Amino acid sequence: MVALAEASRLSPIGRGRRMGARAAREIAAFVEVVALISALAAASLTIDRWHASTLPTLVMFSLFWVWVYVLLTYRFNRTSDSLLARDLLADRMGNWLKSALLVVILAFTTKTSEDLSRLWFGTSAGLGLAAIGVSRTISWAILSSHRFGGARTHIAIYGAGANMDELRARLDANPLGVIDGLYDDGARGTQKKGRAAGLAQLMERARSGRIDAVVINLPWSAEDQIKRVVEQLESVNVDVLLVPPEALAEHGAFRSARLGQLNALALYTRPADGIAALVKACFDRIFALAALVALLPLMLIVALAIRLESPGPVFFRQQRCGLNNTPFTMWKFRSMRQAAEDRNGDRLVTRGDSRVTKVGALIRKLSIDELPQFLNVLNGTMSLVGPRPHAYGAKAADRLYEDVVDRYAARHRMRPGLTGLAQVRGFRGNTENESDIRNRVAADLEYMDRWSLSLDLAILFRTAIILVWQRNAY
Q1: How far apart are CA 444 and CA 387, in angstroms?
Q2: Whole-angstrom distance between the N-terminal and C-terminal Cα of the chain?
Q3: Rounded to whole angstroms, what are the CA distances from 195 to 83, 182, 227, 304, 473?
Q4: What are the sequence ranges of the domains in the chain?
Q5: Nearest to residue 287, comparing CAs of 376, 401, 162?
Q6: Domain 153-266, CATH 3.50.50.60 — does that match?
Q7: Which of 261, 253, 211, 246 is nearest to 232 (CA)?
Q8: In angstroms, rounded to a whole number, what is the distance separating the alpha carbons of residues 403 and 393?
Q9: Element (H, E) at 403
Q10: pLDDT in tens, 323-374
Q11: Interval 448-466: pLDDT, tens
């Protein structure tokens, strides 16, 4: 970190020139890798079981550990294509733990596990997590300071369309970007407040290095004008982006794709595909089977308590909407009196609801009523992590969910989960207001956009913590 501060004093950047977000991310990544290597070196040299004969093995596995982490974080990270990609600390820590798993597999495969003590492994993993968190926090704090000119992408907007307010709001929402100005060659007398100038002035600022990216906000029907602007911007070193029509923009993030000789825009791609999806499915089933075996005594006690308190079946089965909008039967422990069961989910459970039994109130508060859903995970109708499945009759402010949220059906492109990003962000419980379901669906769609195995691990970890402190389950 001292090197960063010294660089600000000696380098041209420190004398007033700006540093872009990309350059800042690359410097922060370098600092992070150095911190990880230092952490592993410290663990290797301070563990009491260390011997000179094991040093080559420790060095080899330490370098392998860092190498795998760098590949997972920077080579295969889908957000790296974004000019304003957020640095997601949870994803990085998940990648570090995945790398640790590969280190263990390599040690057993090469029969060198005896040279790697559990104390070294645990210490290295812990110091690595700390190094990632501390290095990212400090390096970004320094690089984003005024001394470095603010590590941000300076964005110019060309074209003042009717969607300017929404466009500005979306760009302002990301802290790594700052709007330089609005440029337009509109007729005189139609200049709007806040407009910088036209294309000539935009080109002048781009040549001076004050702009990193230009967002063209023109209707796609204006092909000639777009072509003229693009031809001009080709001569300067800036990123050029074209705002999609409203009909496409409402579908969220999309990227260019190539099918054979065809170049096209991919509005949607399968959130989980390839080897990572196979690993997710295998992990789901292995974890679900282990959980059912470990929790069997508790589940038998709960089943007995339910039968003793009120007549009726132990389990409550309800049709929920699953993958590809197809219905499936979700299992839960019965928490209501049988005569008061709501099979369609038309009426949400409220605090002190008379339909809920005493045992039901307890298991709902502790989320024990959800344990039978491990059976759903085992049979493939659910996953450990994913958008929570909703009942078909569920409502927010007396309106069906699909009537409240336009893109509600898009959340069914992944298998529903026992927990999800919406739940760990606190968007769980009753949906009394329309904003409740909007926030939940927005988080579900973000999860599908960002999906990775590390994100799943981070959500599972946060879920375990939240279950201890939850207050809105009843």
Answers
A1: 5
A2: 48
A3: 24, 5, 22, 71, 50
A4: 2-148, 153-266, 274-469
A5: 376
A6: no
A7: 211
A8: 11
A9: helix 401-404
A10: 988 999 999 999 888 765 666 666 666 676 778 888 988 988 888 999 999 9
A11: 888 888 788 889 988 888 8
